[in-house]
Amino acid sequence: MVIIRDNSRKEKYIFRCPCCKFSQTVRCGSFFKESRLSVAEILYDTFCWAVKIPPRSAAAACDVGEKSISQ
Hints:
2 domains, alpha+beta, 3 strands
């Protein structure tokens, strides 16, 4: 599998097999598969959680809803 840039998708990247051309998203197989947040938003939210920023402050800093932060 190789990583290919695909601007038509929200996460902008996919994994593609060079032999059979099978492709899947970079989120496939993770617990972020059903998330509607971008990969950048997920990483920033995870950072806020790791440094123990309160959910309300993290939601404001990440510009996402407080429910998205808590989920």
